[in-house]
Design a protein that fits this description.
Layout: H1 3-44, H2 52-82, H3 86-94, H4 97-100, H5 108-124, H6 129-173
């Protein structure tokens, strides 16, 4: 390994460590902010439409968590292919996080539970049928986003590994 390769490796490992630590903090901070906004909006108004504000905060929090996860996984596959990182090779052989440990790096079930809880004030406000339909659909769409992202994350390691191997093969042929 050249000195440049060693520096790149160290920088990418540090990035994984930082983003890996940031993910649960982003989740906890975002969920706390969501709970505070939900409590405030529920206390201050009975308009069902106001449930979109905390839902937007919940969705933004999820997207931050998802982006951090995708970035960490992608860097890991890069290290696996271009630096033959033994840890990443072992992690890949061990399998995706959801398959073996029961751990969910995206906190999907907790986000789904928060989404359901976010919808409760809508029901308590006795919405008009059109409000119930629209707000129910928006909450359902976010729930589907969570499940689609979780499914995408489950296949990300293999897809990224194949893409980086392809890039390495292309660079070897040039």
């Amino acid at each position: 390994m050249t000195e440049r390769d060693v520096e790149e490796y160290k920088a990418l490992r540090a990035t994984i460590r930082q983003r890996g630590s940031a993910r649960p903090w982003a989740f906890l901070t975002g969920l706390s902010a969501w709970a505070a906004v939900t409590a405030a909006t529920t206390t201050l108004t009975t308009l069902p439409l106001i449930s979109l504000l905390p839902l937007l905060l919940l969705a933004a929090t999820f997207e931050v968590v998802f982006a951090l996860h995708v970035g960490v996984e992608r860097i890991g596959r890069y290290l696996q292919v271009f630096h033959q990182d033994r840890w990443e090779q072992t992690a890949m052989a061990f399998g995706p996080p959801l398959a073996r440990t029961g751990s969910d790096p995206l906190f999907t079930l907790l986000f789904l539970l928060a989404t359901v809880c976010n919808f409760v004030p809508v029901l308590l406000a006795e919405p008009l049928p059109v409000e119930l339909g629209v707000l129910g659909a928006v909450h359902l769409i976010f729930g589907l986003r969570l499940l689609i992202a979780r499914n995408a994350a489950a296949g990300q390691r293999a897809a990224d590994l194949a893409r980086f191997r392809s890039l390495l093969a292309e660079s070897d042929h040039q």
